[in-house]
Design brief:
Number of helices: 12
Shape: globular
Number of strands: 10
Strand content: 15-25%
Length: 305
C-alpha cells in the first residue's frame, strides 16, 4: 500500500485488510510505503500497526516508484497492490488467491469495486484508445459512456458472478503472481502517477498471461480520495501518463491524431470553465493546468523508452 497524505484512510484500509484476512489461513505480510506525507501518516501507521513493514520515504517518489519499493521488499507468491482509499470486504483476498491458484494462465486478477454507498463501480476495462480519449472531453449519452466504445465491459458479466478475462482493472486492488513480476519486470517508474497499472497489464498480456476480474471478490473504493487533494496537478499528471502510454504502444499517425483530439478537448474544457463562472483564482488554476497539458501535446510524439 502506497500512502500520501491519507492518514485516516490508510489506517482504515489496513484495519479492513486485517479483518478480511482473519481466519483465512493465508500466510501474509503487509507493507506500507509512505511518500513523505505531511499529515503524519507514517508515524500513525507505525503507532497503530507496529508489526507492519513501513518504508517512509523522505520525498514523494510517485506511485510507481513507491510501489516498486514495496514489491522489492515483499516475499509472497502473490502480491496485492492496494490503495489506501479501499475497504477489502470479507474473503475478497481469498477469492483472488483461489483464482490464481486455479488458473495457471492468470497473471493477475482484481475484484469488483463498489462505491461507499454500495453502488456498482466499473473495474474491468479495455486498453485506452482514441474513442475513450474523445469521450473524456466530449461525453455523450450515458449508454455510450457505459459501452464498449468507452472501454467498459458489460455489467451482465459482473452479474454472472464468474471470473472473466479483461484487458486491465483499476489499480485500486490488483493481485499479481510473483512469477509474472519476475518475467515482465516492475512498474514503469516513468509514470509518476496514473496509467502504470494499464502499462503493466499490457506487458503481462504481451508475455502471454491473462488478467481477470473476479466479481465475487468485493472491495469498497472511495474513489479519488487521495488524488482530489491537488486536482489541477493530478489532471496534468494523468495526461502526462496517458501520452507516455500512447507514445509507447501506438504508431506515429495515432500519436498525432490523439494529440489533436486532446488539444481540441482542452479548448472545449477551457470554454466551459469560463462559462461556468468559477472564482477567478480557481479558473486561473484550471486554465494553467490546461495550458500545461497543451504544452505536453506540443512536444514531438515519439515512442517512450
Amino acid at each position: 500500500m502506497v500512502s500520501y497524505n491519507t492518514r485516516d484512510l490508510t489506517l482504515a484500509a489496513l484495519a479492513a485488510v486485517r479483518r478480511s484476512l482473519a481466519g483465512s489461513g493465508l500466510t501474509h505480510e503487509v507493507i506500507v510505503v509512505d511518500n513523505a506525507s505531511p499529515d503524519g501518516s507514517a508515524e500513525a501507521v507505525r503507532r497503530a500497526w507496529p508489526d507492519i513493514t513501513l518504508i517512509a520515504n523522505a520525498e514523494n517518489r510517485g506511485f510507481a516508484a513507491a510501489t516498486n519499493q514495496g514489491l522489492v521488499a515483499s516475499a509472497g507468491r502473490y502480491v496485492v497492490l492496494l490503495n489506501p482509499d479501499t475497504e477489502v470486504l470479507a474473503e475478497a483476498l481469498d477469492q483472488l488467491v483461489r483464482l490464481l491458484e486455479s488458473r495457471p494462465d492468470a497473471g493477475a486478477c482484481a475484484p469488483s469495486l463498489l462505491y461507499a454507498d454500495g453502488r456498482f463501480q466499473h473495474n474491468a476495462f479495455r486498453f485506452p484508445g482514441l474513442a475513450q480519449t474523445l469521450l473524456d472531453f466530449f461525453p455523450l449519452h450515458w449508454r455510450i459512456q457505459e459501452s464498449r466504445l468507452n472501454g467498459r465491459y458489460p455489467r451482465r458479466l459482473y452479474a454472472r458472478g464468474e471470473p472473466f478475462a479483461i484487458d486491465h482493472p483499476l489499480g485500486a486492488c490488483l493481485m499479481v503472481r510473483r512469477a509474472v513480476i519476475e518475467q515482465v519486470g516492475l512498474l514503469d517508474e516513468g509514470y509518476f502517477m496514473y496509467v502504470e497499472e494499464i502499462d503493466w497489464c499490457r506487458r503481462m498480456k504481451a508475455a502471454g498471461w491473462r488478467v481477470y476480474c473476479v466479481p465475487q471478490a468485493r472491495v469498497i473504493h472511495h474513489a479519488g480520495q487521495s488524488t482530489r487533494q491537488f486536482r489541477e496537478a493530478m489532471f496534468v499528471a494523468l495526461w502526462r501518463s496517458r501520452l507516455r502510454y500512447f507514445d509507447r504502444y501506438h504508431g506515429p499517425v495515432f500519436r498525432r491524431v490523439v494529440r489533436l483530439v486532446i488539444r481540441l478537448g482542452l479548448e472545449h474544457a477551457a470554454r466551459r470553465a469560463r462559462r461556468d463562472g468559477l472564482p477567478d483564482e480557481e479558473l486561473a488554476r484550471r486554465l494553467a493546468a490546461y495550458d500545461q497539458v497543451r504544452a505536453l501535446c506540443s512536444t514531438p510524439a515519439r515512442p517512450a523508452l
